[in-house]
Amino acid sequence: MEQTAQSLRDLRKGVLNERSKDLLLAFLIAIIGFAGSYLVLGKSFRNAQTVEMPEQDLQSYSNLISTSDSQLSLHEQKSVYQYRAENLLVQGSMLVGGVTRITNLAFNPQNIYLIDYGNGIRHRMTSSVMSIRYQVPGLYLLQCYVQDNQSWKLQSAVTVTIRKPQKHEAEN
What we know:
The chain is an alpha+beta fold and about 170 residues long. The protein is built from five helices and seven strands, in the order ααααβββββββα.
């Protein structure tokens, strides 16, 4: 803490040593992170739950809704957008090498679906349940697309954290 205070004093005097450069870089990264979070959260930190849905995304998702539901109000369409993550059910141990099952709850055999596992692998969904074994721990974004007029539209997405097995878990 004392070194940080000394770096701040040096910075005020105009002396740029290695510590003050690092401190300046840390402040710059923090400001950029703060500004990025501000923009991502819809320019509001007060209510992070009501992030505005982009108009283009709202329009592309409303194309997936049947014509009888096209009369939904904007508020109802936002709640449909928030329902997206619930279309994918992820089950399994969430460990490296373990089987992870992905169930598309909105699967319709008459549609064509594509699943992106978030690790560079994509497969066409031939059934409502698909599985994969992740070999590297990390945070993966699972995305399910439906084909609509020769283009792929995002139907649902969910993040999955795959972790290394602990020693006591590996022995069982």
